[in-house]
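Translate sequence into structure tokens.
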Amino acid sequence: MYAVFKRELFSLLNSMMAYITIGIFLLAMGLLLWFFPDTAILDYGYAELTVFFSLAPFLFMFLIPAITMRSFAEERREGTYILLATRPLTDWQIILAKYWACFVLVLCALIPTLIYYYSVSQLGLPQGNIDGGAVTGSYIGLLLLGAAFTAIGIFASSVTKNQVIAFAVAVFLCFITYRGFDAMSQIFALQYFEAAFLALSVNEHYQSISRGVLDTRDLVYFVSFVVLFLGLTRLVIGGRKW
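Result follows.
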């Protein structure tokens, strides 16, 4: 499994697509946080990163599918997945190796954003006047959100040979799971349905963790979400073998 993980990670790092995608993500986030008047931190007047953690999920909807779209789609298109499947590896080992390789790249995209925390901390009066607990909780929520979107991207890549289609399917599923259930909870205003749809919403659990409180229900939700989509990927891969 480690050999597949290392091969997949090096393959991602050797492709220009990964660097271009991460570069666009960081450039867009930097422009939104420091230059655009409606979202600029300097115009907000408070030493906090609420804007960053509100905008990051929407950029994740495009960043992560761009990273994961080649995972299975490219291997199937080029025929190299047959060679991979004939090795003494289980389907779960292959899926998890590709999943962790993509997630590590998402983590690499998040690490440079720590400079935003340092900058806001230094600009605050007095210096360091920023809620570190809330920021830590928000970063944990962002990591869990990235893990969930990565699972969706891996699943989308397994259902088609076309990377563009895999990207489009992943973006659609990320948007539906993040905002779709919230919208449905407002449409079905009855209390039972509203609570049910909110319980299924990724955004609801992400916002809960972003408040700085780690609830086991939120952690169980994200773990279950990842397992669900990786399980669906296993069904697709296993069914195609048969």
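Note: The chain has a mean pLDDT of 83.
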